[in-house]
C-alpha cells in the first residue's frame, strides 16, 4: 500500500489569537500530485511553512514516514527529503544555469564539493535532459531563461538532491499559458519519477490538469478533500469560487 510520506492530522497553527489553520488533515503520497487550493488568506502559506520547517504547528500531529515530527528549521525538513520551491525560486539570476543547479547549502556539505566545473556542468546537463528540459546554453545566466524554464531548473535541482516530497508554491502564478504548460508537464514528470508533489495554487484549471488529489482550504479549514475520479473541473471551480453548499 502507498502509505503517506507526509501526514498531517488535525493540525492547527495560531499566530497569537489568529487561527491560520484549524484542524487540517492532509496526506501526501509517493507518485501523487496533491493540489492545495485556496484564496488569499486561506492558510496555504502557513501549511507550506509547517511542512518546510519554517513554523511549528500548535496542535494536532505531523508525521513523516510514520514518525511524528516538529521541524525547527528548513534544514530538518530538507534532511527528511522534503524540498520546497518558493515563488521567488532562490535562483541567482546572474549566475549560470549549471551553477545555479548546484547552488544551495547541499553543495557545502555533500559530495559535490569535490567536483570540478566541467563535471558539475555535465551533471546539470544530464539531469535536465533526463527530465526533458532542453536548455541549449547552460553557461548563460539563469535570469535570461523564461519564467517556465527557471521554475523547471529550480524543480530539477530539488529532485537531483534527492527530494522525495516536493512542495511547489504557486509555480504557475506568474506565468502565461505556454509557460504554465511547460511547468505543468514537468510537474507530471516529477510525479512519474515517484515524487510526492504538493502543488499549491489558486488556479483550479491548473490543478485539475495534473492533480490526483485536491484539498481546498477556506479560512484555515479543509473545505474539500477529494480525488480526481470524484470531482469534475466544474465542481472544483465552483468549490473554489465560494462553495456549493
Ligand atoms: P496567500 O496566498 O495570500 O499567501 P495563504 O492562503 O497562504 O494566503 P496564509 O498566509 O497562510 O494564507 O495566512 C492565513 C492567515 O494567517 C491569514 O489570516 C493571515 O493574515 C494570517 N497570518 C499569516 N502569517 C501570519 C503571521 N506571521 N502573523 C500573524 N498572522 C499571520
TrEMBL record:
Sorted UniProt keywords: ATP-binding, Nucleotide-binding
All residue ranges annotated as the ABC transporter domain in the record: 6-244
InterPro entries reported in the protein's UniProt record: AAA+_ATPase, ABC_carbohydrate_import_ATPase, ABC_transporter-like_ATP-bd, ABC_transporter-like_CS, P-loop_NTPase
Record-linked SUPFAM superfamilies: P-loop containing nucleoside triphosphate hydrolases (SSF52540)
GO MF: ATP binding; ATP hydrolysis activity
Top-level taxon of the source organism: Bacteria
Keyword Transcription regulation recorded: no
The name this protein goes by in its record: Monosaccharide ABC transporter ATP-binding protein (CUT2 family)
Organism: Kribbella jejuensis
UniProt lineage: Bacteria, Bacillati, Actinomycetota, Actinomycetes, Propionibacteriales
Amino acid at each position: 500500500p502507498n502509505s503517506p510520506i507526509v501526514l498531517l492530522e488535525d493540525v492547527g497553527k495560531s499566530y497569537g489569537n489568529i487561527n491560520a489553520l484549524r484542524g487540517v488533515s492532509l496526506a501526501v503520497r509517493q507518485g501523487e500530485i496533491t493540489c492545495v487550493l485556496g484564496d488569499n488568506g486561506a492558510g496555504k502559506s502557513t501549511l507550506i511553512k509547517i511542512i518546510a520547517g519554517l513554523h511549528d504547528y500548535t496542535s494536532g500531529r505531523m508525521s513523516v514516514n510514520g514518525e511524528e515530527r516538529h521541524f525547527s528549521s528548513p534544514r530538518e525538513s530538507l534532511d527528511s527529503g522534503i524540498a520546497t520551491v518558493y515563488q521567488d525560486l532562490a535562483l541567482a539570476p546572474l549566475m549560470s544555469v549549471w551553477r545555479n543547479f548546484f547552488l544551495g547549502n547541499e553543495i557545502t556539505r555533500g559530495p559535490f564539493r569535490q567536483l570540478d566545473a566541467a563535471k558539475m556542468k555535465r551533471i546539470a546537463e544530464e539531469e535536465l535532459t533526463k527530465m526533458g528540459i532542453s536548455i541549449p546554453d547552460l553557461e548563460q545566466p539563469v535570469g535570461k531563461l523564461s519564467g517556465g524554464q527557471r521554475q523547471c531548473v529550480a524543480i530539477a535541482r530539488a529532485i537531483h538532491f534527492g527530494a522525495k516530497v516536493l512542495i511547489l508554491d504557486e509555480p504557475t502564478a506568474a506565468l502565461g499559458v505556454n509557460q504554465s504548460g511547460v511547468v505543468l508537464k514537468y510537474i507530471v514528470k516529477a510525479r512519474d519519477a515517484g515524487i510526492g508533489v504538493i502543488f499549491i495554487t489558486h488556479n483550479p484549471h491548473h490543478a485539475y490538469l495534473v492533480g490526483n488529489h485536491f484539498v481546498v482550504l477556506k479560512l484555515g479549514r479543509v473545505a474539500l478533500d477529494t480525488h480526481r475520479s470524484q470531482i469534475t473541473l466544474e465542481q472544483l471551480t465552483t468549490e473554489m469560487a465560494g462553495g456549493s453548499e
